[in-house]
């Protein structure tokens, strides 16, 4: 990775935690800064994450490990697939010590939350994957169409809620990978945690207006020079 790519990975990892009201400790932030500066390599971050995952008494160990694991997901990319296997691969990279049997959500949440039936998660994920494939994983869409489509799939995936742990973080990584492959990047730094939670909640209740507005404020072209100078802001990579 280039220094800019390492810095981007660390910034994304920070924001992905922040949107869930989690914050890594100062010593782990120092380790991330060493990684950005080239004073530490990915293997050292992996070793630190593994050490943190083995701790049970350190209150912030889980958050610190998730921060490092998210950086490593960005550092070691693979081709997006747009299906449950990709979601599980992301989740496994975030929580490598979690057994396969505990990965997927097996029960409905308390408090009356409306989520997809846990007993049918594989079926629901397959339907979303097929719909994504029919839309060519959102490749070559103009910006307004892409925003509407991504809001739709974010809502669908939030309703699916496939994982009992780290579901939201996993979905944000999945959507970021999907968007980048389609020619758009998501600037999660523009999303306020409270507004983000409210938008997801209202989308689950049937109103996706706030979610679309949230995404519209985050979407930017992967190749801004080409978009701005050749195609225009609202036209996508196909032009």
TrEMBL record:
<feature type="domain" description="Fido">
    <location>
        <begin position="82"/>
        <end position="220"/>
    </location>
</feature>
<dbReference type="InterPro" id="IPR003812">
    <property type="entry name" value="Fido"/>
</dbReference>
<dbReference type="InterPro" id="IPR036597">
    <property type="entry name" value="Fido-like_dom_sf"/>
</dbReference>
<protein>
    <submittedName>
        <fullName>Cell filamentation protein Fic</fullName>
    </submittedName>
</protein>
<dbReference type="Pfam" id="PF02661">
    <property type="entry name" value="Fic"/>
</dbReference>
């Amino acid at each position: 990775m280039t220094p800019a790519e390492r810095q981007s990975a660390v910034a994304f990892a920070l924001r992905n935690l922040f949107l869930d009201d989690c914050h890594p400790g100062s010593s782990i932030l120092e380790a991330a800064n060493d990684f950005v500066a080239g004073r530490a390599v990915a293997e050292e971050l992996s070793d630190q994450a593994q050490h943190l995952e083995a701790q049970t008494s350190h209150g912030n160990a889980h958050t610190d490990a998730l921060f490092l694991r998210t950086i490593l997901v960005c550092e070691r990319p693979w081709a997006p697939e747009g299906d449950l296997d990709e979601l599980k691969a992301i989740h496994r990279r975030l929580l490598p010590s979690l057994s396969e049997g505990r990965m997927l959500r097996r029960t409905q949440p308390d408090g009356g939350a409306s989520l997809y039936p846990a007993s049918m998660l594989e079926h629901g994920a397959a339907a979303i994957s097929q719909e994504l494939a029919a839309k060519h994983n959102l490749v070559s869409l103009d910006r307004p169409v892409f925003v509407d489509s991504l809001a739709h799939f974010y809502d669908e995936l939030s309703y699916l809620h496939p994982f009992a742990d780290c579901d939201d973080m996993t979905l944000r990584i999945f959507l970021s990978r999907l968007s980048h492959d389609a020619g758009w990047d998501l600037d999660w730094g523009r999303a306020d945690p409270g507004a983000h939670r409210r938008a997801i909640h209202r989308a689950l209740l049937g109103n996706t207006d706030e979610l679309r507005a949230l995404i519209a404020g985050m979407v930017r072209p992967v190749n801004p020079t080409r978009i701005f100078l050749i195609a225009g802001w609202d036209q996508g990579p196909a032009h």
